[in-house]
Amino acid sequence: MDECTDRLLDVQVLKFGTYTLRTGLVSPVYVDFREIFGFPDLLCELAELIFQASREAQYELVCGVPYTALPLATCLSITHRLPLLIRRKEAKGYGTKRIVEGKFVPGQTCLIVEDVVTFGTSILDTARILQQAGLKVPRIISAAAMSYGQRTLLPTTAPFATRLLSLMEEKRTNVALAADVLSCAEALALAEELGPEICMFKIHADALGGFDESFHLRLAEIAKRHRFLLFEDRKFADIGSVARRQYEGGIFRISHWADVVTVHAVAGPSALLSLQEACSSTDNGAFIVSEMSCQGSLAVGNYTQAAVEMAKVCRDFVAGFICTSRVTTDPSWVLVTPGVKLQEGGDGQGQQYLTPEEVIGRRGTDVIVVGRGIIDADDRLATAQAYRHAAWQAYEGRVAQI
Ligand code: 5BU
């Protein structure tokens, strides 16, 4: 895959810069798929990667989303002897008036191939039309869903996001543990036991009994040994000067040990800018709370969009967002979702849970934050491994499928 990516860069199918897309979104990456038509060997290589990525799905036919994905679908069809369908953009006004051309019988299963996905509207249109024609659509494959590793190469990815994305890719885990236990001693024991399974260890320092300097020194040592990052879920929401003092000073001295913190958008960008100034390393960062998992949250709609927009004033410090949906399609930001359990439901106190498959696989966020789902389990290690497996499978499925 990496060799293929290098060639896509060489021949300018994949470009990095600042591009305004048809949808009005500004993107740091642009895929000019039409450029590939001049390189048939590369087209075949990409079609083969798509075939490999879709192997688990059972399908009998292949259909490309018009127009640029048609050569990809054709290549797959010829190489693997899969009958090809063509979905017309509009039904012909004469002759058969068919909108889906090709040989098929209702009930057959069809793979949809797309070149680049922004919002997925064209894909969904194609899926709907094929379904109306009686076909089953098990999988949609896109040539351009970026992996965590590939996203570290984007020039707009913040330093902390780069650290997190590389760690997730290398360690093969996108689970953050919400270590909401009573004491620092318990938190250290949890970090020791579950450290090998997670990418971030999230605490609320002010809710842990016995907090002192020796705690964060010992936690940092465990984090280094088991390779995870330290996340203080402080949710700063005050004016810049106070937020800075809360970050650097007091009992917790958060800036001395936390790799990443959360910041509310409600007070505007000043808190972010002050925290960035006070940050002990340029490799550290913050997540902006753009949505919350709890019932009745006011962080919705225009607020969410404004929170996402605000991140741009502090691009080197903001690594991404806390959210429960895909609040941005810009792959430089990391999307972190709390309120996750293996079974959907609630906790009776406003928390709402979605499954790893739902948030990573279907909604398209990147990291799950799990607290009681793991902490309340009889076997915490086996349960953490089950979350890790579910969230990673959902991610791997998504890199091939949108
Ligand atoms: P739970 O035990 O998995 O429900 O814990 C969720 C954790 O995520 C907990 O530490 C919350 O403070 C944190 N959280 C959340 O649940 N929802 C949010 O919207 C935000 C943080 Br922001």
Automatic annotation (TrEMBL):
Substrate binds at D180, K202, S293, Q351, G371, R372. The keyword Glycosyltransferase applies. Its EC number is 2.4.2.10, 4.1.1.23. Keywords: Decarboxylase, Glycosyltransferase, Lyase, Multifunctional enzyme, Pyrimidine biosynthesis, Transferase. It comes from the Eukaryota. InterPro entries: Aldolase_TIM (IPR013785), OMPdecase (IPR014732), OMPdeCOase_dom (IPR001754), OPRT (IPR023031), PRTase-like (IPR029057), PRTase_dom (IPR000836), RibuloseP-bd_barrel (IPR011060). This is Uridine 5'-monophosphate synthase. It comes from Eptatretus burgeri (Inshore hagfish).
